[in-house]
Specification:
Blueprint: H1 2-23, E1 31-35, H2 38-48, E2 52-56, H3 71-79, E3 82-85, H4 92-99, E4 106-109, H5 111-114, H6 149-166, H7 171-197, E5 203-210, H8 213-219, E6 222-228, H9 238-250, E7 255-259, H10 265-274, E8 277-281, H11 289-293, H12 298-312
Parallel strand pairs: 1-2, 1-3, 3-4, 5-6, 7-8
Helix pairs in contact: 1-3, 2-6, 6-7, 7-12, 9-10
Amino acid sequence: MYKKLSILFLCFFLLVLCGCAANETEDDGKLKVVTTIYAPYDFVREIAGDEVNVSMLLSPGEESHSFDPSPQDIIDINECDLFIYNGGENDGWIDDVLDGVDGNVQTLKMMDCTGEFYIEEETVGGGHTHDHDAHDEHEEYDEHVWASPANAVKIVNAICGRLSELDPLHSDIYMQNCREYTDRLLLISSKTEEIIANSKRKLIVFGDRFPLRYYVEEFGLDYYAAFPGCAEDTETNPQIIIELIDIVKDNDIPVIFKTELSNGNIAETISEATGAKVRTFYTCHNVSRDDYENQTGYIDMMNSNMELLMEALN
């Protein structure tokens, strides 16, 4: 990892030394915001509209857990006014990058905005526990804090505050857009709570990684999943599949979920064995090229998830 970062820094300095004139572009005076993943990218769009230039390091359709920054990514971070990232272990490369960029770059960690953290759980092949106080040397915090609409409200307010500090001339616009957007997020939360309260079951099953711990904690759902959210090894495990098939059959589960950008192989296998339908549940870390071009937003994805819950819990 350090060797890779050293190479990246070398490329960065070579680009700066050899291509300064070529890289000069006209400054339109707008704030430049860079985000690592899609959720904060969309939050900035909703808050700031055309008042800022926002970009995302991930390419549409790219897997976030295997992301490595390019020399251009480092240049973009160095030249931005605000860099927004999650701040978990998966973002370990960022501290090294920030040590080597201009000290004037402002940063915002989403995990600093939300407060409470939950441990990633093994729900099959290792037992399912809701003991939030149980810790051992192998446990890791779930990093996907943005997946909860309640947490999204906190993150959006933090982004709004930072944009207003950096660009007070447009702070009224940012604050008004923020109020309207958080109202929509709170409406999603209340509608989702109502759906779950009127459902006949509270259990969802994922034949996939499960980066939705904060979502289920917000809404009081139980879950089983093939792998934790940041699992590196997602090779097909027959024992895990057997356990999930039994859970789906025993609980008469009508829907088995996979996440966006997943190949869905495990979910399809469980579906074939049980008759449960496979549906895609959005985690909002990134989107497909089509969703990106259609400007599918966090609200759209959460509304889709809400409709899927109606099918899965009844």
